[in-house]
Amino acid sequence: MFCLPFLVSGFSFLVSGFSFLVSPYSLFNFMSIETEFLKSVIIRFKESKILGEKTFAQLTDEEMLRKPNEASNSIAIIIQHMHGNMLSRWTNFLTEDGEKEWRKRDAEFEPRSLSKEQLVKLWDEGWKVFLDTLESITEKHLLKTVTIRTQSLIVIDAINRQLAHYSYHVGQIVYLGRWMKEGEWQSLSIPKGNSQSYNEQMKKV
Asked: Mind listing the pLDDT tens digit for each residue in 170-201?
């Protein structure tokens, strides 16, 4: 007969009148939910980054600038916007408002005659600032309060907010790339009609 009351420092076992205190770290490969969150969200952001880059690889300089109509954005403009957002949000993330005074957001949506190489450099610069900051965040920071346009939110929410934002724009990039390449598009996910064979392949892994 034994009892298993939970303690902050570990698990207490009572066996035949003897009490044992065992750390959960010795019973499980223990990982806090905060650490798991940070690991998971970094992976998801990097997956989005790769989707964008696999799209760029299929496009010409002209296609990076093309847009479906006057009301829509080109891939180039989306990159300009993401670059500006990432630099503003993630520079001094924990100590300054995310909307910096030096940011010129409206200018991010103005067409510029940039080459594909120049656009990829903007993309890389934005992602570097962002990921360097994100990877420096630790468990102790997650419940701290930061501000974006003076709105207060905890770090977890700020990260989730950007996960939704960047995924939204990467989805636009991929959609525009597929629209332009049509039959030449190289699928970035399971090709249409191949779901069953993909599932069978995964069972063998």
From this structure: 999 999 999 999 889 999 987 777 788 778 78
Q: Give the global pTM.
A: 0.82
Which structural domain range is residue 111 located in?
33-187
Task: Give the C-alpha separation, 186 to 109, whole Å.
Answer: 28
Alpha helices, H only, the chain: 24-27, 33-56, 61-65, 75-90, 116-134, 155-181, 195-204
Q: Are residues 19 and 39 in the same domain?
A: no
**In a domain? residue 192:** no
Are 105 and 155 found together in one domain?
yes
pLDDT in tens, 105-143: 999 999 999 999 999 999 999 999 999 999 999 999 999
